[in-house]
């Protein structure tokens, strides 16, 4: 019973921490660009503002347009709940493996793209088609990286992968290095961060994610934005906890859980700062160079798989 | 041999070899000549680091010397010579248009799988901990060959050739405890001579067809050469 309670608590924590992470990334980025930047808690204020505002819906919109924000939010939230955040051996992480996680993210993305096309404006369709282009290329790369991890641990469950990593201790695995590179590239593409998509842009020519949300207002917009932030948190937690699982709680004592929380917050803060630094240093690439970028991710995933077979298992 | 039973230093060798393989792929798909030369220099440095780490963990004293030789020759001297050639040929900002880059990279992945399959019986014989790297070094050789086949730019082909040599050297280090010193010195000298000859050839090719795109050599015939010469020079570099 307490296990399910902790799982619920962790799922709520995902939702609560996501705006903080995006606020931190924006803050670091602003400081790197010599701006003062918005306060750390600004995303919470934005969400509250959007929630109390009136929600208007275009008169050409179908019911799908109204339910899509809820489906996208819930699918992303469920996906995030399956990733071990502060404690390892949770029932939510046991019942869903990595393939379910990829599937849940795909479900959310499907409805996001449908909602983008629903109203029938040019930008919505454009954004949806670009999002599908990017995700159709990112998904194979993500699966390759995930299979590399799964082959090492002989399990497709994230708990299994992390447990294997924790018991093995520190090993210089080339396959993990390649899988890490592939996952980082996929995360940048899927979360719409800078080399692929600019999250702050409202320039028509370059929008991908924003173009699909143009028709949304009020609480619908709040849910869509929140879901995007949860997705960023999900990929961040996936990267730090799979490759550096140290600190995560393996027992359900308050001390271990507190340590797990502190560890994951520090790891995410470092990752967020690295993301902000990368976004400051790099320029956004042209849309038609994105396939090349994701081909690199796929190559890294494949090399991870091959180097596991060739270099790590042996005969 | 499972990675978990190896000491940290030997794991590091395996990691460096995997990175050298990755750089081979980067070299295969890199369209900018100067960047490709830098990638080649890093690959040479990685191969030297592998040799050095094998020497550290295996106490094979003469490998220190080959590591030093590789570092000087492949990471510094040959890249410097190539860089100077590219500058003298005015190709610093040259980019090559690759046909089907994704397909070629997938062909490279297929070559890695092929070389693993080829090496499998040898690995089962059971050699030192470096035996897993033999497949990687064979893949390096084959990818260098692939690069020579599908690149049209003469300098890029030379880079493919040199990275083949990197693979051969890695194979020598991983399959045996390195070649005898005389052989290594001979190979190093051969490489240097080859590099000088390549430089001479670059200028010859450029003088005769006004380009370093070796595909154009196919068009050179006795009859056509006279009336198609102005056409070539109008194209400029390619």
Automatic annotation (TrEMBL), chain A:
Domain of life: Bacteria
Residue ranges the record marks as coiled coil: none
CC annotations in GO: plasma membrane
Membrane topology, as annotated: Multi-pass membrane protein
GO MF entries: lyase activity
Residue stretches spanning the membrane: 6-25, 67-86, 98-120, 132-150, 170-189, 228-249, 255-278, 290-311
Signal sequence extent: none
Entry keyword annotation includes Lyase: yes
Localization, UniProt: Membrane
Keyword annotations from UniProtKB, A to Z: Lyase, Membrane, Transmembrane, Transmembrane helix
PANTHER family in alphabetical order: FORMATE HYDROGENLYASE SUBUNIT 4, FORMATE HYDROGENLYASE SUBUNIT 4-RELATED
Name of protein: Formate hydrogenlyase
TrEMBL record, chain B:
Transmembrane segments: 12-29, 36-57, 63-82, 102-120, 132-151, 158-179, 185-203
Protein name as it appears in the record: Formate hydrogenlyase
Annotated Gene Ontology cellular component terms: plasma membrane
Main location: membrane
Source species of the chain: Allochromatium palmeri
Keywords (A to Z) from UniProt: Cell membrane, Lyase, Membrane, Transmembrane, Transmembrane helix
The keyword Membrane is assigned to this record: yes
MF terms in GO: lyase activity
Topology within the bilayer: Multi-pass membrane protein
Cell location: Cell membrane
């Amino acid at each position: 019973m307490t296990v399910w309670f902790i799982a619920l608590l962790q799922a709520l924590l995902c939702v609560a921490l996501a705006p903080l992470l995006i606020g931190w990334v924006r803050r670091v980025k602003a400081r790197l660009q010599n701006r003062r930047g918005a306060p750390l808690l600004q995303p919470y204020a934005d969400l509250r503002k959007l929630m109390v505002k009136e929600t208007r819906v275009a008169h050409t919109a179908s019911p799908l347009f109204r339910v899509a924000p809820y489906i996208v939010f819930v699918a992303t939230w469920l996906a995030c709940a399956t990733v071990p955040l502060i404690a390892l051996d949770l029932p939510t992480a046991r019942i869903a493996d990595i393939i379910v996680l990829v599937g849940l993210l795909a479900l959310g993305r499907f409805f996001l793209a449908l909602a983008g096309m629903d109203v029938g404006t040019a930008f919505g369709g454009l954004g949806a088609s670009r999002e599908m282009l990017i995700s159709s290329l990112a998904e194979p790369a993500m699966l390759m990286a995930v299979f590399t991890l799964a082959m090492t641990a002989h399990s497709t469950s994230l708990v299994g992968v992390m447990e294997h990593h924790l018991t093995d201790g520190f090993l210089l695995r080339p396959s993990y290095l390649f899988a890490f590179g592939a996952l980082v590239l996929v995360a940048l593409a899927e979360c719409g961060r800078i080399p692929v998509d600019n999250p702050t842009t409202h320039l028509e020519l370059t929008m991908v994610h924003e173009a699909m949300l143009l028709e949304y207002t009020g609480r619908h917009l709040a849910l869509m934005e929140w879901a995007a932030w949860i997705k960023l948190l999900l990929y961040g937690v996936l990267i730090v906890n799979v490759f550096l699982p140290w600190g995560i709680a393996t027992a359900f004592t308050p001390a271990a859980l507190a340590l797990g929380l502190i560890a994951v917050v520090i790891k995410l803060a470092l990752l967020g700062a690295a993301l902000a630094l990368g976004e400051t240093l790099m320029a956004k690439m042209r849309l038609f160079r994105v396939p090349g970028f994701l081909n690199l991710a796929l190559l890294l995933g494949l090399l991870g798989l091959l180097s596991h077979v060739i270099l790590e298992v042996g005969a | 041999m499972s990675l978990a039973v190896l000491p940290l230093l030997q794991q590091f060798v395996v990691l460096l070899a995997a990175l050298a393989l990755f750089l081979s792929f980067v070299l295969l798909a890199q369209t900018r000549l100067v960047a490709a030369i830098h990638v080649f220099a890093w690959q040479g440095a990685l191969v030297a680091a592998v040799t050095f780490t094998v020497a550290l963990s295996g106490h094979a004293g003469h490998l220190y010397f080959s590591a030093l030789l590789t570092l000087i020759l492949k990471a510094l001297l040959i890249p410097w010579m190539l860089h100077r050639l590219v500058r003298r040929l005015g190709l610093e900002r040259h980019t090559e248009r690759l046909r089907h880059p994704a397909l070629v990279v997938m062909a490279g992945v297929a070559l890695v799988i092929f070389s693993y399959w080829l090496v499998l019986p040898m690995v089962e014989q059971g050699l030192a901990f470096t035996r897993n790297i033999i497949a990687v070094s064979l893949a390096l050789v084959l990818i260098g060959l692939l690069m020579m086949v599908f690149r049209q730019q003469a300098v890029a082909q030379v880079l493919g050739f040199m990275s083949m040599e990197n693979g051969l050297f890695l194979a020598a280090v991983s399959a045996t405890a390195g070649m005898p010193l005389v052989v290594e010195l001979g190979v190093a000298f051969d490489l240097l001579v080859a590099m000088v000859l390549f430089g001479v050839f670059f200028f010859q090719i450029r003088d005769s067809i006004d380009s370093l795109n070796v595909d154009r050599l196919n068009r050179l015939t006795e009859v056509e050469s006279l009336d198609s010469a102005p056409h070539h020079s109008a194209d400029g570099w390619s």
